[in-house]
Design brief:
Layout (H helix, E strand, L loop, with lengths): L3 H27 L8 H12 L6 E2 L6 E6 L4 E7 L26 H16 L7 E7 L8 H7 L9 E7 L7 E3 L2 E4 L2 E9 L3 E2 L9 H19 L7 E9 L5 E2 L2 E9 L3 H19 L5 E10 L2 E3 L1 H15 L4 E3 L18 E7 L20 H18 L1
Parallel strand pairs: 3-4, 3-5, 5-16, 6-15
Antiparallel strand pairs: 1-2, 2-4, 6-16, 7-14, 8-12, 8-13, 9-11, 10-12
Helix pairs in contact: 1-3, 1-8, 3-8, 5-6, 7-8
């Protein structure tokens, strides 16, 4: 656990960086960019890091970067996401988005500011017991997310552990919410096309009634999956789109249903495409429809490593006290941070950010944060990374 002297040093160093980190957050918030277009954001973060003598490595496309601080054989990591959402922001904030239809409505600007400020803080910390690799990732909100490409480039190689923050507008600032095991679910896309010869609605017995077949899929598929999988590991299979047909008296030749599958169990996540393929064929076979099932991986569930969570909790208590470290519920929302955890143990940490004057939610046009979460995140992040390097 970091010593009292170490904690005092971190408070001093974070105090020197906090205002600049908040200013960086506001600058990024004012000029948001959606996934795979974060060239300006990346360049600004690189400039911010280089001003402190660091040597950030911008990725080939100009979106996303890496930077390492410290020396030694042991290395842990910290990941932040850069992208904004296609949401139009009201003009209430003095640093509101100046890009029509784009807004940081999920706190990625906060995550980036914390990571950049944290990198500068640890670069100035004289007794860092190893190295820390900071990963600034594009396109977390996309499918596939930016983590897929960075993982393929080897950003997890050499890491013993990896951390990430996500602001939590349900918790007050000054709190850190932790959970071992699954904390967010997988989220995958499913598209099912049903095909048949078509025909007249007066003679459904002469053709394949694809509307009926689609209705059966929507109603029966979730129950089928629950019946053939472990009931201790449920699947949220929900359809958001159904389409087909052009007239009320014409049975179409094609109908499409699409939705998402969400679950917390990694083994089930790996097996589900084959389960769904078999299930759809069995449901529509009696009706004569020909199905085509397309399954697109979004992200696995984030499964927090117990030992990493324990280390983070111990370090966080030195910053926010016992009362500031709380438990948290699972969320059916997805996070592509999960892809990195296929290679290295880690933890997604929820950081209290609720403003005092309103109730907000992620992805809302009215989303705001209490910016005191930024220095809190820098302090907790620094203490946790040092704890992991020492453990």
């Amino acid at each position: 656990m970091p010593t009292a002297e170490t904690i005092a040093d971190l408070h001093r160093l974070v105090g020197a960086q906090a205002d600049d980190a908040v200013a960086l957050r506001r600058e990024i918030h004012r000029a948001p960019e959606v996934g795979h277009t974060e060239v300006r954001t990346t360049a600004r973060v690189a400039e911010y890091l280089a001003a402190a003598g660091l040597e950030p490595e911008v990725r080939g496309s100009g979106t996303g970067l890496l930077v390492e601080v410290g020396r030694g054989d042991r290395m842990v990591g910290f990941r932040a996401d850069l992208d904004a959402l296609p949401v139009d922001e009201p003009r209430g904030l003095p640093f509101a988005s100046e890009t029509p239809g784009v807004m940081h409505a999920c706190g990625h600007d906060v995550h980036t500011a914390i990571a950049a400020g944290l990198a500068r803080t640890l670069a100035a910390f004289e007794d860092l017991p190893g190295r820390v690799r900071f990963v600034f990732q594009p396109a977390e909100e996309m499918v596939p997310g930016g983590a897929v490409a960075l993982r393929a480039e080897g950003v997890t190689q050499g890491l013993e552990a990896l951390l990430a923050f996500h602001v939590d507008p349900s918790q007050p600032p000054g709190t850190v919410a932790l959970r071992s095991g699954p904390i967010t679910s997988a989220s995958d896309r499913i598209q099912i096309e049903l095909m048949g010869p078509g025909g007249h609605t007066s003679r459904p017995h002469k053709t394949v009634d694809l509307i009926q077949a689609a209705a059966r899929v929507v109603i029966e598929l979730p129950a089928y999956v629950q019946r053939v999988t472990d009931p201790r590991h449920p699947v949220a299979l929900v359809f958001g789109r159904i389409g087909g047909g052009v007239a009320e008296n014409v049975i179409p030749t094609s109908v499409e249903v699409a939705g998402t599958a969400r679950m917390f169990d990694l083994d089930l996540w790996r097996d589900l495409p084959q389960i769904l393929e078999k299930a759809v064929h069995e449901i529509v076979a009696p009706l004569g429809a020909t199905p085509k099932v397309s399954y697109e991986r979004g992200a696995p569930p984030v499964v927090n490593d117990e030992a990493v969570v324990r280390a983070v909790a111990a370090a966080a208590r030195t910053i926010v006290g016992d009362e500031g470290v709380v438990g948290t519920e699972q969320s059916l929302g997805a996070e592509d941070f999960a892809w990195y955890l296929e290679d290295v143990p880690g933890a997604l940490i929820r950081l209290g950010s609720a403003p005092a004057d309103r109730t907000v939610d992620l992805h809302s046009a009215n989303f705001v944060v209490d910016e005191t979460c930024i220095p809190t995140g820098m302090l907790v992040g620094a203490a946790a990374l040092i704890e992991l390097l020492q453990s």
